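TA notes, week 10

Several of you asked for a full example with nothing omitted. So below is the full record: structure tokens for the whole chain, then the designed sequence directly under it. When grading your own attempts, check the secondary structure regions first.
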């Protein structure tokens, strides 16, 4: 259709046709509606106004999803020690009370006084007193006294001691100090009383000891991870103003830790002693000094512990380099451990230490320190929660071992006979059966075999075999039962003209009980040497027989 006029005419025709069709449809629809209304009667028209409504906006819903469960099992290594603790004191009961404002720290009944009397004219007094709050300061005072008179003439002794200890605490350190005085009085009654008639004053051995010490140690981990405990101690020991021995000991141990398993430790020590014998006109003076430096490397873990180092020691100017190597390895967790070592040490022999071992000795002229070198190996184990044991075999080499021999006049005193070189095969074993603070049973055995003597033929007055045992049982809340036993084989001794003999063995069995009457008062009783054995630890000196002592304890 290229002609525009024709296209215009055709469009008009089509438009008219569409309009007519629309009109026709409206007429037909209206007629149909009227016909339907005549049939139903009424028509209800509902008219609603148009309200534009916005469509709800689509929001992002955030919902948390659970983490994926971790199915891996963590390795938790617990090392809970057995409950092998035994406390001689009773715990403080917990009683709920209303809160009261009080700046004092209640530490319970810390003070007690124990007094009694025995069948051998034995008075006994012991006391302990504590002061301070336990957080910033603490002071403890202890004192005791006992004396007895035996059936043999001059078989008497007495002991008294007073000691005070104090500590002052800061956040990281503890400053501590102590002072003490003790006096021990013995009589040399080991002579033939039918042949000799000595005055009691001439037989007396009265030892007096004054001790002063102090130091500083850290009680918290510092920034350098270093532990330290420098301390100093002074002793003044004398016998009835006839012989005086003064000692000054300075010890500086320092340990530096590297991580959790390695540490390095150094211990520097100076032990200076001067002994003056005033019983002679020349006032003989003896000097006995020991200086040492002990560096040590320590490695410790759950299964293995090792200590390795050396100890250069100057014994009166003579240098000895001693080994200090030992360790432990765990074969089974908390059950069995093996131990081995190679260690050396010096035991300083002073008038103070030797008279504590044998109070009937003569005044010493020359003091030589004992050098020990020990090789040992053994096992120890904890079985269950209550039982543990330890067994060890050691080979020990001694140089300058002091032995005691009766004097050749009347045999009432002992002289020191030095052994320059001797060896000892030591077998040691001990076991413990402990149930918290209710029950404890311990036993130990030591077997010594001395051989390869240089100057002597036997270890005079050294015990070859000894057995010890201890028993404690809180049978009831108010009753504590105890028992102890000490038995040993006969010791060898030497008489004049080099006559060798051996003392018979001995057994000392003791038992005791403590009964709580009230919270503040208790009754106690001890039975010593129940078998009434008159054994001799030192030749010519039989011990007391059976004796009993009892009394009261007051706590406040």
């Amino acid at each position: 259709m290229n002609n525009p006029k024709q296209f215009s005419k055709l469009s008009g025709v089509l438009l008219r046709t569409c309009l007519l069709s629309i009109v026709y449809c409206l007429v037909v629809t209206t007629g149909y509606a009227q016909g339907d209304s005549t049939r139903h009667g009424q028509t209800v028209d509902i008219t609603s106004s148009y309200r534009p409504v916005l469509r709800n906006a689509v929001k992002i819903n955030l919902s948390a999803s659970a983490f994926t469960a971790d199915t891996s099992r963590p390795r938790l290594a617990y090392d809970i020690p057995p409950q092998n603790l035994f406390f001689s004191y009773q715990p403080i009961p917990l009683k709920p009370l209303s809160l009261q404002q009080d700046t004092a720290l209640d530490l319970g009944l810390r003070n007690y006084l124990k007094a009694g009397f025995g069948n051998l004219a034995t008075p006994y007094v012991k006391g302990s007193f504590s002061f301070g709050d336990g957080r910033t300061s603490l002071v403890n005072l202890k004192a005791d006294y006992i004396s007895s008179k035996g059936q043999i003439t001059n078989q008497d002794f007495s002991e008294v001691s007073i000691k005070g200890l104090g500590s002052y605490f800061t956040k990281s350190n503890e400053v501590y100090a102590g002072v003490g005085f003790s006096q021990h009085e013995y009589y040399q009654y080991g002579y033939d009383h039918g042949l000799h008639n000595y005055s009691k004053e001439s037989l007396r051995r009265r030892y007096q000891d004054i001790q002063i010490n102090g130091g500083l140690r850290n009680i918290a981990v510092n920034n350098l991870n270093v532990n330290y405990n420098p301390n100093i101690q002074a002793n003044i020991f004398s016998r009835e103003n006839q012989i005086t021995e003064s000692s000054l000991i300075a010890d500086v141990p320092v340990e530096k830790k590297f991580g959790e398993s390695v540490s390095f430790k150094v211990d520097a020590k100076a032990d200076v002693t001067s002994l003056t014998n005033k019983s002679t006109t020349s006032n003989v003076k003896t000097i006995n000094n020991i200086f040492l430096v002990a560096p040590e490397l320590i490695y410790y873990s759950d299964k293995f512990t090792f200590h390795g180092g050396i100890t250069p020691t100057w014994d009166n100017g003579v240098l000895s380099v001693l080994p200090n190597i030992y360790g432990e390895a765990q074969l089974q967790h908390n059950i069995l451990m093996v131990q081995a070592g190679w260690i050396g040490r010096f035991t300083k022999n002073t008038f103070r230490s030797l008279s504590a071992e044998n109070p009937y000795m003569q005044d010493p002229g020359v003091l030589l320190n004992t050098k020990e070198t020990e090789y040992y190996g053994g096992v120890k184990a904890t079985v269950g929660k209550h039982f543990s044991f330890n067994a060890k075999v050691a080979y020990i080499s001694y140089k300058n071992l002091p032995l005691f021999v009766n004097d050749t006049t009347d045999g009432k005193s002992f002289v020191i006979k030095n052994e320059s070189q001797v060896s000892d095969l030591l077998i040691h074993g001990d076991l413990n059966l402990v149930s918290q603070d209710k029950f404890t049973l311990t036993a130990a055995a030591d077997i010594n075999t001395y051989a390869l003597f240089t100057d002597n033929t036997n270890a005079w007055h050294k015990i070859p075999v000894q057995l010890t045992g201890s028993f404690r049982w809180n049978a009831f809340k108010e009753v504590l039962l105890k028992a102890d036993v000490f038995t040993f084989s006969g010791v060898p001794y030497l008489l004049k003209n080099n006559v060798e003999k051996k003392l018979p063995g001995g057994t000392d069995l003791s038992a005791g009980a403590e009964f709580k009457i009230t919270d503040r008062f208790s009754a106690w009783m001890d039975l010593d040497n129940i078998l009434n054995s008159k054994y001799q630890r030192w030749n010519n000196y039989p011990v007391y027989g059976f004796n009993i002592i009892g009394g009261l304890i007051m706590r406040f």
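The helical segments are 4-40, 200-203, 351-357. Use that as a sanity check on your answer.
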